[in-house]
Amino acid sequence: MMKRSLLLVTTLLFMTTLALAQAGEIARRLGLGSDLSDSKISSGLKQALQIGAEQSVKLTGRPNGYFGNPDIKILMPSNLRPLEKGLRMLGYGPKVDSFVLSMNRAAEAAAPAARKIFIDAITAMTFDDARNILSGSDTAATDYFKLKTTPQLTAAFRPVVERTMATNGVNQQYEALVAQYRSIPFAKNQDLDISHYVVSKALDGLFFELGQEERKIRKDPAAQTTNLLREVFGR
Fold this sequence. Notes:
Number of helices: 10
Radius of gyration: 26 Å
Number of strands: 0
Helix content: over 70%
Order of helices and strands: HHHHHHHHHH
Structural class: mainly alpha
Distance between the termini: 44 Å
Shape: elongated
Largest sheet: none
């Protein structure tokens, strides 16, 4: 009888310890009940965001940052794919390729404008924002940036894109391609705001790279390059 009681107590103690350990792990993952102050969490997250933002801008804002990256390369708009196919069949492939390259060059020229806008958004972040991002998904910070910066980024990117496209003759290339396509019998009219399209795709690519950088900092100890990052994310 005594042995059975002892076994029961031991079992209950083990189960209680296991439950507490599991609860502690859940709390750790949520950033709850930790010994990190709001100030330290906020500082660590802001440091991570600044590193991720600067790296994503660096990756996209260099030659071939878009054009050489298959994940974010700006392709011919989907509604112009019939135009592209028809022009390539007629031997205008090199002109199509030149047009696609010019769109990507415009995005690469615009990307550095994101840096200050990202830094401003990081500076304005509250303690609650920081805790929500820390306990959120692997791309919670990227989603925060999308929400807070898309209007400013769109406004900042558009003039750079338009200026670069004008220098590279993108609009003239587009009009020439459309004119050649219209000469094909039964070809349908196609119209597109090329500047808007390039800006939109440029932002998609920038946020994609930012998301990749955020995942690295959250998951990869090698990407946690400072003591503060290791303390906040390496727990």
